[in-house]
Amino acid sequence: MLNITPGVDDLAYRFATALGIGLLIGAERERRKGEGPARSPAGIRTFMIASLLGGVSWALGGVPLLAVTFLGVASLSAIGYVRTGQLDPGLTTETTLLLTVMLGGFASRDPVLASALAVTVAIALRARTGIHHFIREVLSEQELTDA
User: Are residues 117 and 22 in contact, defined by beta-carbon separation less than 8 angstroms?
Assistant: First the structure.
């Protein structure tokens, strides 16, 4: 008979993966969050906790609890955005925090794919300057229209 209930070792591995996801994405966000009162409300610790929260939510309650967790973090992100939105109108950190919760939950289901997605997110976040330069300076209006 196939046992689909994860064991303690398997669960620890999945939680460690969720923490690693939060650490990876949070490290990138920590470098960009700024200083003083204008700084972003989410840094490395917030991302690690949010990702683990997603993993624990999935493990304890599946999709329904993960959905409640997602909505809770979304509410906190909205409050943080209202607080700092005048100084930084971007939504990258808030959106990434929500994705991190989901990736933490997904790590409980498929840790390898969740980790790969987290690496992709971290690369995309890190490539911000290069992407902006490419869009603004290298890509012509005609090339953009053609695309």
Answer: no
145 vs 147: CA distance, rounded Å: 5
- pLDDT tens for the 147 residues of the chain, in order: 445 555 667 989 999 999 999 999 999 888 776 555 555 667 889 999 999 999 999 999 999 999 999 999 999 989 888 877 666 667 888 899 999 999 999 999 999 999 999 999 999 999 887 787 777 878 888 887 877
Cα gap 106→118, rounded to integer Å: 11
Which value, in Å, is the radius of gyration of the alpha carbons in the chain? 17
DSSP string, the chain: ----S--HHHHHHHHHHHHHHHHHHHHHHHHHS-SGGGS-S--HHHHHHHHHHHHHHHHHHHHHHHHHHHHHHHHHHHHHHHHHTTT----HHHHHHHHHHHHHHHHTT-HHHHHHHHHHHHHHHHTHHHHHHIIIIIS-HHHHHH-
- How far apart are alpha carbons 80 and 73 in whole angstroms? 10
